[in-house]
Amino acid sequence: NDSAKNVYKLLENLLEWARLQMDQVQFDPQTIDLAELVMECLTPMEAVAREKEITLKADIGVIKASCDRAMIDTVIRNFVNNAIKFTDNAGEIRVTAKKEDQRVRVSVTDNGIGMEGAQIENLFNLGSGNSTKGTKGEKGTGLGLLLCKDFIKMHDGEIDVQSEIGKGSTFSFTLALSS
After folding, report:
1. Torsions phi, psi for 57 (to 5 deg)
2. Residue that wins the pLDDT comparison between 160 and 27
3. pTM, rounded to two decimals
4. Alpha carbon distance, N-terminus to C-terminus of the chain
């Protein structure tokens, strides 16, 4: 069942990315409760995390953001899925949100295998060799991060990646706060 869900998510990402490339994706920003959205994203991923004995935590607080719910759901799911993929057994993944002026920065931090600078520079580029196998041989296509980049760009936001080999990674993005 989990494998079927993962294949479905991959297909969904591929189709969404193709639609985006053809300018067929509707951008529908609304006021959303970030804590609620994050919990909706984490709940279905708990089973996959549990298989690797990874703890998923969220520290969001009461923050309302202006965003397209479906797009940001996709970004958070992709970031958390990648964190699970590149975190060894008994690891921890934390999703946090912090206000920065009129924006909010949402971060997904893991204590996984980390990356070197050259790998980080190529994460959001389409091409061969951008997909790396996870700690249990999990496969990916690299399309998820491309989709995330495009979705955050549509929100006039920024994506940031901080990582250190052997210590883990933090993927973050910014959104407008809801007024």
Report:
1. -130, 150
2. 160
3. 0.86
4. 41
Strand 30-33 versus strand 64-67 pairing type: antiparallel
Is 128 a residue whose pLDDT tops 60? no
Helix (H, G, I), strand (E, B) or coil at 52: coil
Structure-token pair, residue 168: 């883990």
d(CA 123, CA 130): 6
Q: Where are the alpha helices (DSSP H) in the chain?
A: 2-21, 34-42, 46-51, 69-85, 117-121, 143-154
Q: Tokens for 141?
A: 């296509």
SS3 96: strand
Two tokens at 111? 């204590």
pLDDT tens-digit map of 131-167? 677 777 676 666 788 889 989 999 999 999 999 999 9
Cβ-based neighbours of 139, under 8 Å, separated by 6 or more: 131, 133
Cβ burial of 33 (10 Å; 0-12, 13-18, 19+) is middle
Query: Alpha-carbon torsion 42, 46, 52, 56, what sign?
Result: positive
At residue 155, φ and ψ (nearest 5 deg) are -90, 10
49-101 per-position pLDDT tens digit: 999 999 999 999 999 999 999 899 989 999 999 999 999 999 999 999 999 99
Helices (H), ranges, 52-137? 69-85, 117-121
